[in-house]
Structures are given as structure tokens and as C-alpha cells.
């Protein structure tokens, strides 16, 4: 049996939460589906030293500014914490661990299927964000001779060989 809503939002990041806030303010029966097990987890998976390129004063979502120095630049963990706080502060209707498998439309009604549930609504917002699936060129194949690290897997410089190790590696070839 499908659960019925007026609006289904796919993705619980910044755009999905902001859309949810507006739906909440309008009194809509809405649902935010988040694929991960925590709001903001995508931020925590990025590289360790990530900071936003815009100051806190310009980085908040509707109705809740980012706390701290307005001219400072928030870190990845600060943004992740803020997104969790945002959802909690406005009691947004978020369901975690709900990766969407399929969206179909019949007539005026969308059906959104996850592994554990089916939802229906006359409107769907897709707020999944870009670059969630790493892509490697077909010509780039794994080799022991050259370290290949996709940007999605990079966390910090410790993952790279140090220059002395690299020189030793190269000079023995």
C-alpha cells in the first residue's frame, strides 16, 4: 500500500531541506527522502579541509542563519551539523535510508519507490545534487605504477605517497 503525500522531495541536502521548509510553512503534507543514514553525511564524506567559498552570512538556509562569525567560512563538519540542526529545528519530515529506486508517473500522480516503501504524490522535487556518482574515463585503468585516486575518494594528503617514497618508487623502475 502506497503512502500518500502532497509533495515528495528526493534528497535531504541543502536544496531538499529548503524545499521541505517551504512546504512545511505552507502546511503541505510532504516527505523528504534521504538515501543516507544521516542528514549531512555527504558533507562529512568530502575531503578533510573543505570549507565553503562563501561566508556564513550568505550560506544559511531560509529562516535559520549559520551561527558563528558572519565573515568566516564554515567547514564541512560545521555545514553537516547545521543541516542536521536545520531539519530538527523546523521538525522537517525526513526519512533516512530511503534511496529512491524509481519514479514513475501515471496520469497526475507520481509513484516513488524505495527498497522498503512506495510513496505517491502529485508533485515531486528532485534535489539529489550533482556529482554523486564518481566517473572514471574508460581509458583510465588501474595500475600499480601510478596512483589513481578519484576526487570523491580524496580526504587528505596522507593518502598520497610522500615525495621521498615517490622518488624511490620512480627511480627503481
TrEMBL record:
<dbReference type="GO" id="GO:0050660">
    <property type="term" value="F:flavin adenine dinucleotide binding"/>
</dbReference>
<dbReference type="Pfam" id="PF13738">
    <property type="entry name" value="Pyr_redox_3"/>
</dbReference>
<dbReference type="GO" id="GO:0004497">
    <property type="term" value="F:monooxygenase activity"/>
</dbReference>
<keyword id="KW-0560">Oxidoreductase</keyword>
<dbReference type="InterPro" id="IPR036188">
    <property type="entry name" value="FAD/NAD-bd_sf"/>
</dbReference>
<protein>
    <submittedName>
        <fullName>Cation diffusion facilitator CzcD-associated flavoprotein CzcO</fullName>
    </submittedName>
</protein>
<dbReference type="InterPro" id="IPR050982">
    <property type="entry name" value="Auxin_biosynth/cation_transpt"/>
</dbReference>
